[in-house]
Each structure stands twice: as C-alpha cells, then as structure tokens.
Specification:
6-stranded antiparallel sheet; 37% helix; 2 domains; Phosphorylase Kinase, domain 1
C-alpha cells in the first residue's frame, strides 16, 4: 500500500479509463463511485475496496470473490460486472450504473409499499436469486440495502461479497462467526450452521414482510438477542400490521419465514413461481404491470398454496362434454343389442 497515494476524489481518473464524478455510497468494505467509461462512453459504477482494508488478505479475497461471482452471472435482475483491476494498489471493479435507489432507502422514504408493487419487486428479486442458485451460488447477505430499484420498477441484486459456492458448503459445517446481517439472516445462519438456498429464501421472506408492513418481523437491542428471535419466535402476522395483506399472501410469507429450511420453499425460483401465480390471480385493480412468468427450470412439480375453487368455480364446459359422452355411449347400447340378436349364436337369445 502506498501511503503517498492521493485520494480518489483528487485523482478522478481510474486505470486511465474511468472518469470518477462523485461518490454514490459506501459500506463496511468498499466505496461506490459514479463514473464514465471513457472508452465506451457509458455511465458506470465503480466499487473500490476501502484503503484501510487493502492490507487485510481476507477482505481482499472477499472483494475479488464478489467481482468474480457477479461477473459470472448474467441475469436482468442481477447487476452486471464489466471489468476489474488494480490501480496504485486500489482494488476495484466496474459494474453497470443503475439509476434509482436501493430498496432500503425507498422503504425509509415511503414507509411500506402497496402489496401489488411489493409482490412484483419480490418476483424479480426471487428470479435473480434463483438464477444465482442454479449457477451454484448462495448469496448469504440478501437485504434491501443490496437491492437496487430503478425508476421503472426494475429490481437488481448486488453485493455478492460473502456469496458461497454450493460446491464448497459442507452441510455439517458450523462456525462461531456468522457472516451476514442479523435482521435478515435465517435461523440456521444465526445458529452458525451452513447456509443453503433455503437460507436466501428466508431472507427474501424478511424483505417481503418489510415491504408490505413497513417494519421488520423481529426487533431487538443487540444482534445476539435478534438472532435468538429468528431461531425461536414467531413473527406477528403481516395482516395485523397491514390489513391489505390477503390470507393467501400471508400464508406465503409465513411459509417462507418457517424456522426449518425444509418447511420453506426450497429455492428462490419456487418462491418466484408461487408469487407469480398469486399476482395473476389477484384482483385486476392492480396498477403495477405483471412481469412474465418465471420459466420452469426445475423438473419437480411445485404446488402453490392458493385456495381451491369453490362451487362457484364449476367448469360447465367439462360438465357439458361429460353429458355428451354419456349420451353417446348410452346410444350405442341399443345398437349393440340389435346386432347381437341378429345372430343365432348371440348369448342373449
């Protein structure tokens, strides 16, 4: 690390190509800047590892891991990574610039979202996370701060800094240190157990709960107590905080927030399909345009927790066709009797 290196704000040209114009935000591991790619003449976002962490091999590894993980994912609901490099000991990678804001800022500004809008956003997030699962990655740190929402409603997932490859996860592993955000990580993560796609699904459930109610399912003064609530406590039913949450949507949310991973939807793809079915069956008064259904990629059949149709849902077309078939078959019986009696060997003579 070069202590005489000027700050990025004083030397806005990065790697001789990216013209930095201002800071978009910062986190525990990196700063994110708005920039212009001079070579391709397009706006980009540049994520730079914090200078006080450059000397830490663990943080450098996590930072490069995030760049590699995101660069191998090509999905409309995942932020695209264009480039990465090192400039004067600055570790950076370049990604698409998403206009808009992160979901957490949006929730602070609006309190809670209309149910139909929240469902459409979650369908997109779940579709992106499902794609990552099929690519062999568990995100492990899903939260509204890591979801970018464009003005047109398009949602994109970012920050794969602690993502885990499924091939490297031992189901029996345990850890005394838990990566992730205690407001959103699953009970098994809180207990130090290995994460899985179902752990990401739980985090999506917390995010959906927060979107439709304007608050988190659990609150505590410290991270340890919060982790205990995730493991032992039941969240207040969302409809108690927002009467617009239907019984069907509440059933979906509470299933996703189940303590046992096996009791949740197994993958984010499955959650996306269930929510798509729910959105298509919701009243037509919704003002949020529905997204195309998530393609069926898992050969297993999934069952939506939507209620069965009652007597008012009788399929009269099927009834009429059944009557026609009955009459047709019944009309053949006299013909068969006449043909049989015409022969001396008929057993009915």
């Amino acid at each position: 690390m070069n202590p005489a290196r000027p700050p990025l704000s004083a030397q806005p040209l990065l790697a001789g190509r990216y013209q930095v114009s201002g800071e978009l935000g910062s986190g525990g591991m990196a700063h994110v800047y708005e920039a212009l790619d001079l070579q391709l003449q397009r706006p980009v976002a540049v994520k730079v590892l914090r200078e006080d962490l450059i000397g830490d091999p663990g943080f450098r590894t996590r930072f490069l891991q995030e760049a590699r993980a995101a660069a191998n994912l090509a999905h409309p609901n995942i932020v695209t990574v264009y480039d990465s490099g090192i400039d004067q000991d600055r570790f950076f990678f370049v990604m698409e610039r998403v206009a808009g804001t992160d979901l957490k800022t949006l929730l602070r500004r609006r309190g809670r979202l209309p149910v139909d809008e929240a469902v459409q956003i979650m369908i997109q997030i779940a579709a992106g996370v499902g794609y990552a699962h099929r690519a062999g990655l568990v995100h492990c740190d899903l939260k509204p701060q890591n979801i970018l929402v464009a003005p047109d409603g398009r949602a994109k997932i970012t920050d794969f800094g602690i993502a885990r490859a499924l091939s490297t996860i031992d189901p029996n592993e345990s850890s005394e240190y838990v990566w992730g955000s205690p407001q959103y990580f699953a009970p098994e993560q809180a207990a130090g157990a290995a994460p899985s796609p179902a752990s990401d699904v739980y985090a999506l459930g917390v995010i959906l709960y927060e979107m439709v109610t304007g608050r988190l399912p659990f609150h505590a003064e410290d991270a340890q107590h919060l982790a205990e609530l995730h493991v032992t406590a039941d969240p207040p039913p969302p409809s108690r905080l927002n009467p617009e949450v239907s019984p069907v949507l509440q059933q979906i949310i509470l299933k996703v927030l189940a303590k046992e991973p096996a009791a949740r939807y197994r993958t984010a793809d499955q959650l996306a399909r269930v929510l798509t079915t729910f959105a298509l069956s919701a009243p037509a008064a919704s003002t949020v345009p529905a997204l195309p259904a998530v393609p069926q990629t898992d050969p297993d059949a999934y069952t939506s927790p939507l209620p069965r149709a009652g007597p008012e849902g009788i399929d009269w077309v099927a009834v009429v066709l059944g009557l026609i078939a009955f009459v047709a078959v019944g009309g053949l019986i006299p013909l068969w009797l006449w043909a049989c009696l015409a022969y001396p060997s008929c057993p009915l003579r």
